[in-house]
């Protein structure tokens, strides 16, 4: 018999009996008053992360259809980033503090939140790992361009209002299977293109402090800040199912590059299962070879997301 440890009160609330790890879900949370989200605390965090290149920023010139990957280069924030954050209301800037789990103070926060929901998540979606935290500090009327990410994501509003447009991870009208294959195989979002008519197909969440959304791995999303400065946090992780889905897409993407196109099956076909099992065996062999030569392996199964320059 497996004995489950006693669990803290969940800091994120949803109907866990109905939780579907591959469906977009509105949530509520009790983090808005946490002092670690006060702007002065975040400025201190930003100072610690800035020296490691872990702040991403662009101006309010970025739009829904701007390349997510290139937005910081296309629309750079010219002022000092710490000064920008201290004056965020007038700065016309979007800022993201990346991989805050690399900071001891905020790693504790990431663990508090994810530990509080882990048993509920894992009843449906076992294997939580690669924990990450991301804090967004944004001027009024700034936009996070349309994109997808690999992790499952609880995005929670702390201060100000935001509108989040999010689509189901299997909505092929918005992002094709081929685009997801490419994303997983090359971490390239080049086949993901924004169209204004997508808005009508979206879940649209108008978030105030205390509210949020659960976005499964590769759910397309677009975020727009309303009329006041905004603070938002995302808690992210992989599970066995995200790793399986990612590896299957990765193999499909690599096969497509050599002219072998597997028909879309949304992860349910015998062929996809065979691809996954074959890829898993090949990966195990590769990792054994890596270990034998002293190279780092098993990144996706790490407890915390690995940041560049870590
Ligand atoms: Fe995202």
Number of strands: 12
H and E order: EEHEHHHEHEEEEHEEEEHH
Overall residue-averaged pLDDT value: 90
Question: Compute the gyration radius: what is it?
Answer: 19 Å
CATH topology of the largest domain: Jelly Rolls
Percent range of helical residues: 25-40%
Task: Provide the domain count.
Answer: 2
- CATH fourth-tier homologous superfamily of the largest domain: Cupin
Bound molecules: fe (ii) ion
Shape: globular
> Tell me about the biggest sheet?
8 strands, antiparallel
Which spans have pLDDT < 50 for at least 5 consecutive residues? none
CATH class identity of the largest domain: Mainly Beta
Q: What structural category do the secondary elements indicate?
A: alpha+beta
Strand order of the largest sheet: 1-2-10-7-12-5-4-3
Examine the secondary-structure arrangement and name the CATH architecture of the largest domain.
Sandwich
Protein name: JmjC domain-containing protein
Domain JmjC: 92-254
InterPro entries: Cupin_8 (IPR041667), JmjC_dom (IPR003347)
């Amino acid at each position: 018999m497996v004995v489950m440890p006693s669990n803290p009160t969940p800091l994120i609330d949803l109907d866990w009996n109905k939780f579907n790890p591959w469906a977009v879900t509105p949530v509520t949370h009790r983090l808005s008053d946490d002092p670690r989200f006060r702007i002065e605390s975040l400025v201190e965090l930003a100072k610690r992360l800035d020296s490691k290149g872990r702040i991403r920023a662009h101006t309010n010139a970025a739009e829904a259809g701007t390349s997510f990957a290139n937005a910081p280069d296309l629309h750079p924030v010219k002022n000092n980033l710490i000064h920008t954050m201290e004056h965020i209301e007038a700065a016309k800037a979007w800022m993201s503090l990346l991989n805050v789990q690399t900071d001891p103070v905020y790693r504790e926060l990431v663990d508090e939140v994810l530990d509080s929901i882990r048993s509920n998540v894992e009843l449906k979606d076992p294997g939580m790992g690669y924990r990450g935290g991301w804090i967004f500090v944004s001027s009024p009327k700034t936009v996070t361009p349309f994109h997808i990410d690999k992790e499952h994501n609880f995005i929670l509003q702390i201060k100000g209002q935001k509108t989040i447009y999010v689509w189901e991870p299997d909505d092929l009208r918005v992002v094709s299977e081929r685009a997801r294959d490419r994303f997983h195989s090359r971490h390239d979002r080049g086949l993901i293109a924004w169209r204004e008519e997508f808005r009508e197909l979206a879940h649209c969440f108008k978030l105030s402090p205390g509210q949020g959304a659960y976005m499964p791995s590769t759910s397309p999303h677009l975020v727009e800040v309303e009329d006041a400065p905004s603070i938002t946090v995302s808690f992210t992780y992989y599970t066995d199912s995200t790793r399986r889905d990612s590896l299957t897409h990765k193999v499909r993407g690599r096969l497509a590059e050599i002219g072998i196109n597997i028909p879309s099956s949304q992860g349910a076909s015998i062929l996809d299962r065979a691809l996954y099992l074959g890829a898993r065996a090949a990966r195990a062999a590769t990792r054994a070879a890596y270990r034998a030569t002293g190279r780092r392996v098993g990144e996706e199964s790490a407890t915390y997301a690995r940041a560049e320059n870590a």
